[in-house]
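Lab notebook, bench 4. The sequencing result for the construct came back, and we need a structural model before the next group meeting so we can plan mutations. Quick request posted to the team channel:

Model the 3D structure of this chain.
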Amino acid sequence: MTTASAKVEEYLEAIYNMEMEGETVIGARLAEKFRVKAPTVTEMLQRLEKAGYITLDAQRHVTLTEDGVELAESVLRRHRLTERFLTDMLGMQWHEVHEEACRLEHYISGAVEERVIASLDHPTTCPHGNPIPGYVPDARGYLARVGACRLTDAADQPMRILCVSEVIEDEEETIRALHERGMTPGTVVTWHGETSEAGWVLLPDGTTISIPRTLARALWVIPADAPMPKGAAGTR
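Done. Here's the predicted structure in C-alpha cell form:
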C-alpha cells in the first residue's frame, strides 16, 4: 500500500465512521462534513477509487475496499490512542482533544503507538467511547456487538452513554455542549422526545435539560444495567 496524504486519510476516516454507524455514504454527506463544494468531493472520490480504497456503485454510494478499511483503521487507531494519551496522561479534558489528535495522528510511528498502549494499560476506546481498531475485535461491528443504539431510539428508559458519534466529533460546539451538561461516556440518561426537533434528558442527579434531537441522536447508548466494555472510556 502506498503512502497516503493526510487529506486522503481524513476522507477514509470519515467514510469508515459513517459506515460503522450504518449511514449510507454519498458525496453530499462528505461535502457537508468537510464543508467543501461538491466538485471537490467528486475529485477526491475519483482519486480514492483509482487508488483502490473505495468503490462507487451506480447510485454513487461509497464503500470502502479492504485496503481502504485497513488504512482507515490504522489512522483511527493512532487518532484514538492519541486522544487517550492527551486525556489520561496529560490531563486534557475530553472535549479538547479531537483537534489535537487530528494534527498528530498522521505522524505517530508504530514504536510510539506500542509505548502509548502499554503506558495506558491497553485501553479499548477513545475518551469519546469509540473503539480503537486493533484493540477490540471487529471495530466496525462494535456498536452492534455491544447492543448499542442511538439515544433517540430508546425513549423513556434509562440508558448508559457508550460513545459519542465519531461523525460529529469535529463539531467542537457539540462536544462542548455535551461536556457542559455532564453527558459523557458511562453516564446514565433518559431521553424524552417532545417534538421532531427537541426533547429533554433526565440526568442521574434528577436534573432535566432540554437538548436538540440532533444532539441526542449523536449519543450511542446501552441499557443502564449493562456494564461498560472493559478498557472503555467511563470505566477508569
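The chain is about 40% helix and 15% strand.
Will bring this to the meeting.
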